[in-house]
Structure to design on (53 residues):
């Protein structure tokens, strides 16, 4: 990962309201967070994780 990102988080929530609440209540208040950028996945062609769910 290179470029404008320091961290990339994969966040799974029940809906967009829960996602927005998570960002506002948990991520944005942190004084070390300068900018939040979101990318949505609309569909999934492959499901593979590095860890067991």
């Amino acid at each position: 990962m290179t470029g404008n990102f320091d961290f990339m988080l994969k966040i799974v929530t029940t809906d967009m309201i829960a996602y927005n609440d998570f960002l506002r209540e948990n991520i944005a208040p942190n004084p070390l967070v300068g900018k939040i950028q979101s990318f949505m996945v609309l569909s999934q062609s492959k499901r593979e994780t590095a860890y067991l769910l």
Summary: The radius of gyration is 13 Å. The mean pLDDT is 83. Residues 19 and 25 are 10 Å apart (CA to CA).
